[in-house]
Amino acid sequence: MLAADAFEFSPQLLNQLAPDRWWHWGTRLTVYPLDYPIYDRVLTLQTLVVSDLMYGDRLARVRDLEFKAQGEDVLTLAELYESIYTGVWAEIVAGDTPAISSLRRGLQRHHLNILSNLVLRRTFWDALAAQSFTDFIALATTLGSPEDARVLARYQLRQMRQDIDATLGRQGDRLDIITRAHLEDVRDRIDQVLDASLIGS
Q1: What is the pLDDT of residues 4-60, one digit of tens each?
Q2: Is 154 part of any domain?
Q3: Which of 122, 156, 165, 172 has the most CB atoms less than 10 A away?
Q4: Contact 138/117 with Cβ under 8 angstroms?
Q5: CA–CA separation, 149 vs 60, rounded Å?
């Protein structure tokens, strides 16, 4: 679900997808837009999966697993975070960054939003001011997360910043403009979140 090649569609398939134009009782006729919203559909699906994995109550349960399964191979919060990170940010983790597609950029921004919300200890009232459905989900699902989840989110943002710096330093001008702009934007947002967390603490 989070792999870089999880959603690869041929242009022929995408050009054949279209909304239902049949108008009958119980449905509305689609007038605009007529293009199939592939970006929105895939991003919504991935948003729900990542948010579910990082749901506040689930993170608390994972934290408590070490007390419930002594001596066994137990999934830890750190392992969960790292697994999600390497899946979502495979392009910069691998060290050989190709062009990052719009679908991947949307997923990466969502993951960044979740980590940022954890670090900044966002509240329910912040969720009410969300600008989009994915922003609301990224914020609402982090409510009630344990402190260990916040600490790991902060650690991972720093790790992400280092990986982005390494990628930009190594690849530099060889990256296409939108990929470079995306990575620079993520880096700047991480700096803002980390600075704001120091002020708020």
Answers
A1: 777 777 778 777 776 656 666 666 655 556 676 777 778 888 888 988 999 999 999
A2: yes
A3: 156
A4: yes
A5: 8
